[in-house]
Amino acid sequence: MNRLAAAKSPYLRQHAANPVDWYPWGSEAFAKAKAEGKPIFLSIGYATCHWCHVMAHESFEDEKVAERLNRVFVPIKVDREERPDVDQAYMAFVQAATGRGGWPMSVWLTPDLKPFYGGTYFPKSDRWGLLGFLSVLDQIAELWSRHREDLVLRGEEIAGRLREALAGSRPGPPEGGRAADRAFEEFSRAFDPEWGGFGPKPKFPRPAALHFLLRYAATNRGRPQGERALSIVRQTLEAMTRGGIRDQIGGGFHRYSVDRFWRVPHFEKMLYDQAQLASVYLESFCCNGGARSESIVREILDYLLRDLAFADGGFASAEDADSLSPEGGPAREGAFYLWTYRELAEVLEPEELALVVELWGVRPEGNIPADADPHQELAGSNILFESEPIEEIASRRGLSPGEAERLRSAVAGKLVRARSRRPRPAKDDKVVLGWNALAVSALARAGLLLGEERYREAAERTMGFLLSALFEPATGKLFRLYREGRGEVEAFAGDYAMLVAALLDLFEVTQEAGWVEKALFFQDRMEALFRDPESGAYWTSGEKASPVPFRMREEYDGAEPAAISIAAANLLRLAALLPEERWPGRLEALFRAEADRLADGPTALPQLLAAYLDSTRPRTSVAVVGARDDPRTRSLFASAMSGLSYRKLLLWIEPGKRFPFLGEQEAFYLSLPAREEGPVAYLCQSFACSEPISDPETLRERLRAAS
């Protein structure tokens, strides 16, 4: 065992038995590199990464490779999910140097941590047109031996250029409206009208882009561009729902699709994908209605509660792409999810098998195209995807839609039970603060909007765990990870932003003022730790958090939304909730700080643009007056909450309820009269309120008109 055996990270522990003499990121490794004058080999990945497993098996478990690494380099392993600051810094270098990025990430550094060479996956030996890892090690060893000073100088120059490039945009007047229009136009051009999503292959869900398009549609309601934005979202969500990227029988979504049809996925399941997609499907449900979107939200959240939740609180980070085959042998990608025709025939009755063939595109020879499986790892297997709507199958078979759905459900249940006897994919069981906060937001909002108390209870239970396990009241420190106890890495800006958003969502759903107080506390901490007072934007990490040679400002809504994007929405919500002047000013400064970035590449930060669009809409207050146990009150409140705007104050008024954070405004809202006939809502702007509204649909329409 090497030094990684004591790590909390599952990814680092996966490499604890390697013959490579791995060090974790830290002072011991840095001191060794300086003392011995050796370059550092930095390998960054995560526990459920398929190609990380491949490189580990090919190279890091190999004695010859290990001997070369240990003799010439100081090898360091980093879990990108534990240290996103390290990952972002060196990914910026790899992308600038090679034009692409990904994991595993392989970077060679000077003893002062300056990068001078990098890439992603390397096969052990030269193949597929790629330089082999052994060849790369030999070439770098030779260069370090003969031209060390040149490499050190190159590292210094690269670090300097990256520092300049990453210093952030020049503050300027925010022109978010123009940037939003350009982002819409670019997303519209990139949209695949036949299969949904953006661009060719591979296809990622892009929840931040869908979130923006829903906000853009709301802002442009009644205009052609608004209808177009809504259509893009509807088509994309429907295509994903039908595709193999969705686990058709177990719920949840895989990471991405390797083809343009959403059919053949990369099979890992990430917590942050589930949480964001549940939220997007829920927003779509609020805009468009429809049982389909509601059903998908429930599927995703039920998957979280069933397969990723821990009994004492919190959710695991991910499930692996790879798993052991039921027949034995090495782990392979998708083994848990794929079916041969024979396996299906052994589980199902002939009538059921015929339905599966029609509904999920199953073929005796397998249904995975060769171009989606270039190395033929999935040959002969079937991925379940909805090849034909069940309504059409029902019509052809003379079944009612209800009968067809019951048959589909029975077949899915049989397959789930059969699949449960297979070895499950490995679970990355660390609890990540920010990702769990995303899950809290989705659960809380779904709990109210879908009338599902168990989702709200799970949201509150998870938040209670996060605050008790990861927050240290005596020092005010907040930590990023929990696994077998609290980790040592403190939370990053993204963790804080997602936590504040979840706390504000919990307030909206429960109307407990304590959640606002906690949100305000952590927002103040975020301002103190990460805000750049010169620009008004936020750094990824605190000033003393990391020895990386350049401090990052995350300015891209990728698989996870950027901290600045979530922070902008939080500032907007705080400005609507609290009678304080500082929050609108902070929000304005943030938009100014990102003005150049939004002008140059508006599709990089769609979630930030969504917050900007909300900031241009009128500030609206909705006060629902009625008893909590009255279902009519809950229906009114859900209608008020379904409006897609963060620039609103949402209050539920009942006897004894207090909202001290409102200050002098509290008395005004508490004075709104109840009605003997039942619960009512008041729509207020600038302390002038509408007549009482008792019909939920009328309230929804009035909110749309007001915004």
From TrEMBL:
- One Pfam family for this entry, by name? Thioredox_DsbH
Gene3D superfamilies tied to this protein: 1.50.10.10, Glutaredoxin
Could you list the residue ranges that cross the membrane?
none
Gene Ontology BP, a term: carbohydrate metabolic process
Q: Coiled coil where? A: none
Q: Domain Spermatogenesis-associated protein 20-like TRX spans what residues?
A: 1-161
Superkingdom field: Bacteria
- Which PANTHER family does this chain map to? SPERMATOGENESIS-ASSOCIATED PROTEIN 20
Q: What is this protein called?
A: Spermatogenesis-associated protein 20-like TRX domain-containing protein
